[in-house]
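Homework help board

Subject: predicted structure for assignment chain

Our instructor gave us this sequence and asked us to write out the predicted structure in token form, then describe one feature. I got the tokens but I'm not sure how to describe them. Can anyone check?
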Amino acid sequence: MNHSTQQCGYVALMGCPNAGKSTLMNACLETKIAVVSQKPQTTRHKILGICLEKNTQILFLDTPGIQHDQGLPRMNKIMNHIAWSVLKDADIICYLIDLTKGFTEFDHIWLKSICQKNQKKILLLATKSDKLKKALHGPQLDTFAQGLKKIYEEISLQEGSYEDFLEKRFLAPTPRLLSAKTKQEVLDLRAYIAEQLPQGDWLYKGDELTDRPQKFICAELIREQLFRQLGAELPYKASVVVDVFQHKPQLTEILSTVYVERDSQKSIIIGKGGSKIKTIGTDARISLEKHLERPVFLKLFVKVKKGWTEDINLLSDLAHLQDPESL
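My token output:
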């Protein structure tokens, strides 16, 4: 390929928790590298997803949903820092808003902050359109228009007219409807994003999917099962570390530890007679085998590390989260 024809750029996926950022990135990559669950605030890290669209390399940056609850102040502070840090790298910002919820108070806060903190173009995506009857799409989109108008009015001194604001800040004046479950809509979005990115050599090899090591992705796929199978609060107090990751001739051996804060949490994860940890392990193994495309032997252990969610050293060791004040 003639490198002069190549395009390459970073696309930040931002928005409130559970807006569909990880689901969209996985759909664009046509494989799973980011954790997905029905619970909000599942993603903890900035995860790079590398996608090829003809001669364009799209570098998706999946971010934690901007945090405002769950009672984990130290962890939330770090995840908020991670979410905001992508602004400096992004060529385009995709801001995702859950169409079933409409434009919320938190969307107003975060999108206003994005407009104030950067000059990059924003693409508004109204996600989960498949979960709402078409007759309700219009009224929900009206909440987007009202929300944008309110943001403009609050920062209008530096923006000119409302039309100037929309043209200057957004790739389109109205949100793009999207269902990540509809393949053609995802492909059309991917092609549209590729057209907006600058010319430049690819930054990664053509067959790479992420800059994260396999051990990290496998730990995330195991952690996903904690969110899917445990109660509302417990998954937020748990972390997963892959201790052994070894490819053998017939299978891949993975030994992994789930860390929690209290003995009572350990008991819940293990379950009566080991029933819960067995179910988590079975479903995680199926997910790992699909990802690695080969048989997997998975062994899970559960250990208690008291106060790990507020200890900066343990946050680094167990969840790979760095204190923003040390960066």
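Reply (TA_rk): Your tokens look well-formed. For the description, you could write something like this. Residues 3-196 form a domain with the Rossmann fold fold (CATH 3.40.50.300). That's the kind of observation they're looking for.
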